[in-house]
Amino acid sequence: MNRVYIKTYGCQMNERDSEAVAEMLRSRGYTIVDDEFDADIILINTCSVREQAEQKAIGKTMRLLPRRSRDGSILPPAAFPQGGRRIVGIMGCMAQNRGRDLLDRLPDLDLLVGTQKFHRVPEMLEQLVATQRGLGPEPHTLVALDEEAGSQNAIKDHVPGRKISAFVSIMQGCDMRCSYCIVPKTRGRERARPIDDIVGEVEDLVKNHGTREVMLLGQIVNRYGLREFPTVDGKTPFVQLLERLSAIEGLWRIRFTSPHPSGFREDLVNAYRYLPKLCSYIHFPAQSGSNMILKAMRRPYTRERYMQLINDLRAARPDMFFSTDVIVGFPGETEEDFELTKSLFHEARFDMAYIFRYSVRKGAPAEILGDPVPEAEKDRRDKELLAILEGYSIARNRALIGSVQEVLVEGRAKRGERMYQGRNNGDRRVIFEGDDSLIGALVKVKIESVTVTALTGTLTETIKR
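^ that's the sequence the OP posted. Answer follows.
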């Protein structure tokens, strides 16, 4: 009973949480497998941002658990008709959001673990394994959903092997109260890891894993440490952390997600002028171009302030690339409000965007507003924004034809013999002909052709390995 399969839904934070759980289990003697059919234990790390994500996770879990017939007899799981008992657990945001209500729907679940209890998974699994072997108490669902001080410091372990680009969790929780969102409920209040601990983790990644780029993760990542740590010489804790990481020899690039416009203060904007390791790419959620809708969403900024920040960041780093998040069909969004969002796309000239159709989240403040905008209207607005986005994205890429881009090589491309891929400083995918010796290297590629999503060119120089 030591083979574990972990299925992850949702954001990079969830991916990072799953990676940390996997390494904690591996250090206890468990084997992490890539196929659920090879597993004795299946853990599902869940997302609650959208109803659809929760339903996917519930549907997946139902197929893994024993079924009950009308006469009360127990049937094998749909996913394993040949039978065999597996331990099945749900972790993460959905566990935290739905809590014990999940057990009414999934009474045969073995494990229910919230967002502040990931580090408890190994000991809970040992208890379940002992129960199955007849060495523990009568079987029942183990539940761990309580808050736990210091839990943000538990997400620090990485799986063995080379990690050219690595996720690094620097904080947990969110103190914002956006009306459409339940993250404060699922992740708790903002809690930051100490700067020294984060720096030590990144130094280890560079030294022992060959890491050349880190992606710093947090629900509101640029609000890191505002409640716990002091501002020094006019620099917030997040900028202090960026400076410390920039000093690590062998680390070439620093990215972060997801920030909030309210966290972009003058010191962070200025950091782009003097920290060259900060990549020229920012994911910058707008959510709407209408001040009325922003107010209803409880987003504490205006469209004008948002655009001021865009312009300030472009002044600090002229080659900056921007992506954004936008919700269409929020309750009360009129055609005039939507036109303001369209005009924001034109004014900001986003390079990429994640466009979401509004859906009601149980427990979110906006739940009482219902979902009055028809799905067909949401679909139309979604497609109109995508068309605008595609135009600006391809134009930006075409402007790079003939330029030479610095590319961190990630590995083989999905298509084409001897074709490899990596990312430029602006997070654009770049494809070129090469060989395995270039994986993990920083190279120069002259761009010759483009699509909406990728650049293709010829390798001209290897800068460093």
